[in-house]
Design goal:
about 325 residues; mainly alpha; Cytochrome Bc1 Complex, Chain D, domain 2; two-stranded antiparallel ribbon; 2 strands; about 65% helix; binds heme C
């Protein structure tokens, strides 16, 4: 496969930029976890900076060279594959769409770093990024790969047919598709209208069933026992001696992660109706916070007591 530009310093710079955006993007995506949060911040800011630099370069490029936003395929490139119509259709939009997606992911991350309320949006937008990259890689391979024979050649023929059909349908389809991806990405953050009623009841019923499976004598949870667990001081890790180290002694308060300093929403259901509503999220946190603080997993009874405590406040 040949990168479709003649070799000069701009191409070298473009390759450097491309390698850097891939590197910082992959690292940022893989380090979003709280244990590697500083690496996430560092690579995320770098990523956002590279997107910004690319946009400036696009303005300076004035439609020419590797940094042009809308890159028109050279006739030579079309001849490579016989997929001219598809290349003509897709290539001018590729960089613009990628940069739009990356700008949304990167800049929402900076917003989330400063404003806790932007975290949900950043999460949703970033989850779209790997799909964008996957589509980009598939398209680049599909457009520029030169088939030599066999199955690959068949694939090439199929692609060129597809290209002809696509060019008949016109660019509008591409624009509509881009818009649909964007709307779908934003839709992830929209509230779910089906989530009416009390999801806490369902969670508590499931927790009770689990506790009874462990010990049939259990009949109910005790918020006082849950509070004792919440406030208990432990010696496993001096930096997080208690649940309240991050969640604060009063679960109605906003907490702060002892390591990353990030804001944690209040735990009490009375002030944060999202608590005790998502068993998957709770399992994830119990599976992490109990060993970190207590040095062991919480029992099903302890989990239920803890949840009952959060519901009682
Ligand atoms: C090192 C900081 C830290 C400590 C210590 C900690 N947590 Fe957490 N906890 C978090 C973070 C971060 C979240 C997820 C952020 C959020 O949901 O707002 C969370 C969320 C939770 C949730 C999810 C609740 C829900 O319904 O959404 C549960 C349950 C939980 N923690 C239990 C515990 C228990 C039990 C302990 C003590 C054994 C504990 N946590 C100690 C950081 C901590």
């Amino acid at each position: 496969m040949r990168i479709p530009f003649s070799g000069n310093w701009k191409v070298a710079l473009w390759r450097l930029w491309h390698g850097s955006i891939v590197g910082s993007g992959v690292v940022a995506y893989l380090t979003a976890d709280e244990d590697t949060f500083f690496m996430h911040q560092f690579s995320g800011y770098l990523f956002a900076g590279l997107v910004g630099a690319r946009l400036v370069a696009a303005v300076l490029a004035r439609g020419k060279g590797p940094f042009a936003l809308r890159r028109l395929a050279k006739p030579g490139v079309e001849a490579i594959s016989g997929r001219g119509p598809l290349i003509r259709l897709v290539m001018p939009w590729m960089a613009a769409i990628m940069l739009l997606g990356f700008a949304l992911a990167g800049y929402s991350g900076i917003a989330a770093d400063w404003f806790h309320s932007a975290e949900g949006l950043h999460k949703a937008l970033s989850e779209a990024a790997p799909w964008l990259v996957g589509g980009h890689v598939a398209l680049v391979l599909g457009l520029l790969w030169r088939p030599k024979g066999g199955v690959v050649a068949l694939l090439g023929t199929a692609l060129s047919r597809l290209g002809r059909i696509a060019s008949l349908l016109g660019r509008r389809v591409g624009v509509a598709f881009g818009a649909a991806v964007l709307v779908a990405g934003l839709g992830v953050t929209a509230p779910d209208p089906a989530a009416a009623g009390s999801p806490q009841d369902a969670v508590m019923a499931e927790l009770l069933a689990r506790a009874q499976a462990e010990d049939p004598a259990v009949t109910a949870f005790d918020p006082a026992r849950g509070e004792a667990l919440y406030l208990s001081r432990n010696t496993v890790d001096a930096t997080r001696p208690s649940c309240s180290a991050c969640h604060t002694p009063d679960p109605r308060n906003q907490g702060e992660h002892v390591k990353t300093g990030r804001v944690i929403d209040p735990m009490a259901v009375s002030v944060n109706p999202e608590r005790v509503s998502d068993l998957g999220q709770m399992d994830k946190r119990f599976g992490r916070d109990c060993p970190a603080v207590l040095g062991r997993d919480c029992t099903a009874l302890e989990q239920g007591d803890f949840a009952a405590f959060l519901l009682s406040r």
